[in-house]
Amino acid sequence: MVQSRTHTCNQLRLSDVGEKVTITGWYDNMRKVSKNLGFLILRDFYGVTQVVIETEEMMAKLAGINNESTLSVTGVVRERSSKNAQIATGEIEVVPEDISVLGKCIYNELPFEVNRSKEADESVRLKYRYLDLRNPAVKEKIVLRCKIVAELRRRMTEHDFLEITTPILTCSSPEGARDYLVPSRNHPGKFYALPQAPQQFKQLLMTSGFDRYFQIAPCFRDEDARADRSPGEFYQLDMEMAFATQEDVFGVIEDVLPPVFAEYGKYKTASKAPFTRISYKDAMEKYGSDKPDLRIDLTLQDATECMADCGFGPFEGQNVQAIVVDNFTATRKVIDKICTDVEVVSGRKAYWFKLDEKGELSGGISKFLQDRKDRVVAALGLKNGDFVGLSAGKKGDALKTAGVLRRFLGDACEAHMKKECYEFCWIVDFPMYEIGEESGKLEFCHNPFSMPQGGMDALINKDPLEIYAYQYDLVCNGVELSSGAVRNHDPEIMVKAFEIVGLDEEAVKAKFPAMYNAFCYGAPPHAGIAPGVDRMVMLIAGEESIREIIPFPMNKTAQDVMMGAPSEVDDGQLGDVHIKIVLPDEKK
ω before 566 within 30° of 0 (cis)? Predict the structure, then answer.
């Protein structure tokens, strides 16, 4: 029977000198001075402690023991002669009376040095994630995540929200991404789906008479990875409020989130209520994005008129957007890099010119503008020393490209980027409908369960493309944290809203039977939102990749290389759920 530890590897201090203790942890490293003198560093979850080996007998106990083995050390605490101010236990050391191996690492070579695991290739880190997580720098992000989630729970409870869990096995629902399907053993040919979000369940809770609901909800979507999106599964702070308006939701979020960001964040300043509110239309035309980074003070200008017929081919017959940056001193190399990065991200080229200190147009496309210099200077309000970044294309494309250019220019110009803070904003007044890029048909722009502004009257009497929804996005530092909406709780309005995109009442009943039927029994007006926990933690921690703040993330191709998922299953298992596999090659 192994004796329990008396202290962690971060607890012992000068006040413990002379005390007999037992500490346990991982064999971090050993600096061997001679055959009877060595300095062992023992590491556990909490920190490190130095153990001084002073006898050949004790040194022999460590012979053949590899790094990362787990040890129990019993000994006496004494004051260090050479103190280390870099660690909490740097004033003491433990002189061992006994060392025992609790768990032996059988490998002489590790896939990477634990304390430098972040320098290893990501695929290796993910395969040996249990070693990667031993690195204090990696572990602390997961600890931070735990603290943030606990604080979110506490604050939501203080606002009288009840934490209620919703089903994981449910039915397939059109949420905008591919479902993960689960075949049913007892119902041949039928499938469950893992929920893309608890959308319908939380609305049904409102119709059930629960006033305020939340959960840290797991969501599952079969979609590709991005730096700010993990494939497969993610978590969100899901909430819904009965008898509530958009303003009620805003009030809760504006009270709950900023203190969490300010307390735990890399930056210690966060927006205070009320957050800036920007219509979707204004966001696109002013910032070129529906998730603008408000730390950047640069804005877009429509330069189509002053650039018309200038002789520069890419501008002919196109919408042209401009971003003016005063006193921009970047080198030509930096400017070219910005233009290259814009093209990589947006798929479209960026252009530029300057009004130099002498008041002359120079660089970039300036030669096409010489005969209209005064017109361009007046239209864009230029001053000597100004840099002008440009994009061109159909208006939507030009705006989006300019939005990407704005971001890169902000990153390159400290005078226009208030970096060390969290700037929240609400994007509101989203279009209810849009023409689908692939289908060419009228589609819902965002959540089909959103209440149209103007209700039934708008659906009957307005052009669908002119109808706005009570739909809103929460954005922080250019990252979309969440979409939310005032829900469509009226079955007649719901049927009419779906009718406009070609789904009749019978189709609505078939696709959303529980929602439709529940609303027919008197549903309260309700609204909600679901900020992404993973994205929030990523922002708070100041990480560029979302995988750094997830304990066991998948790789970019939705594979768990540590567990070997997805994996093959045997024919017996397939038979149980009435499935036969037809591989792509077999379909030909």
Answer: yes
Residues in the chain: 588
Question: Which two structure tokens, joined as six digits, stand for 81?
Answer: 């002669």
SS3 per-residue string spanning 160-224: CCEECCCCCCECCCCCCCECEEEECCCCCCCEEEECCCCHHHHHHHHHCCCCEEEEEEEEEEECC
d(Cα 492, Cα 499) in Å, to the nearest integer?
Answer: 11
Q: Which of 412, 501, 429, 422 is nearest to 459 (CA)?
A: 501
From the annotation, which residues make up the binding site for ATP?
A: 221-223, 480, 532-535
Q: Domain 14-103 - what CATH class?
A: mainly beta
The 10s digit of each residue's pLDDT in 141-158 is: 999 999 999 999 999 999
Q: Which fold has domain 296-416?
A: Gyrase A; domain 2 (3.30.1360)
DSSP string for residues in 394-419: SHHHHHHHHHHHHHHHHHH-GGGB--
pLDDT of residue 345: 95
97 contacts 74 by C-beta, under 8 angstroms: yes
Work out the angle at residue 79's Cα, subtended by the Cα atoms of residues 78 and 85, and round it to the nearest 5 degrees: 135
H/E element, 486: strand 479-486
Sequence ranges of the binding site: 175, 221-223, 446, 480, 487, 532-535
Low-confidence ranges of the chain (pLDDT < 50): 1
Closest of 275, 320, 267 to residue 294, by C-alpha? 275
Per the annotation, where are the binding residues for L-aspartate?
A: 175, 221, 446, 487
Q: What angle do CA 364, 365, 371 make, to 5 degrees?
A: 135
pLDDT tens readout for residues 32-59? 999 889 999 999 999 999 999 999 999 9
Can you tell me whether residue 325 is helix, strand or coil?
strand
3-class state of residue 560 by DSSP: strand
Structural domain spans, the chain? 14-103, 139-276+424-572, 296-416
User: How many of the other CB atoms lie within 10 Å of CB of 573?
Assistant: 11
CATH of 139-276+424-572, one of 3.90.950.10, 1.20.1440.60, 3.30.930.10, 3.30.70.1520: 3.30.930.10
Give me the phi and psi of 382, to 5 degrees please.
-80, 150
**Confidence (pTM):** 0.92
Distance CA 262, CA 276 (A): 18
* Predicted confidence (pLDDT) per residue in 210-237, tens digit: 999 999 999 999 888 776 778 889 999 9
**Stretch (H or E) spanning 101:** strand 92-103
Which residue, chain included where needed, has tokens 């705006």? 399
